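Lab notebook: predicted structure, single chain.

Context: the supervisor wants predicted structures on file for every construct in the current expression panel, including those that have not yet been purified. This is the next one on the list. No modifications to the sequence; it matches the entry in the shared construct table.
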Amino acid sequence: MYKYKIKELMDQLPVIEYRKLNTQLHRVIGVSRNTLINYSLIKITSKQDIPYSTIRKLELIFGLRYGDLTNQNITCDHYKKIIDRVPEKVIRRVRRIKRPGKAGQQPD
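Prediction complete. Output recorded below exactly as produced.
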């Protein structure tokens, strides 16, 4: 399975629209034709990714909502849950870094 639905969306187009879009899409999103092909063939398990701005352009071109181009669900905890998991001892170990004063002055 592929990480993004680019190939799937292209394959759903009528033949005439597919041919026309296939000749122009890489130019519109600002990449080479080979790069666009490589983007469409990224495996879902791959660490390779497409730049965010390119994904947004493709979503807009195909009339998709934000996040609909991907074949995977990305989830994450809210930052407050992450903070709650950090033990208090770890927080106390963090020390302030002394910053030097103006040029030529020695730090205290």
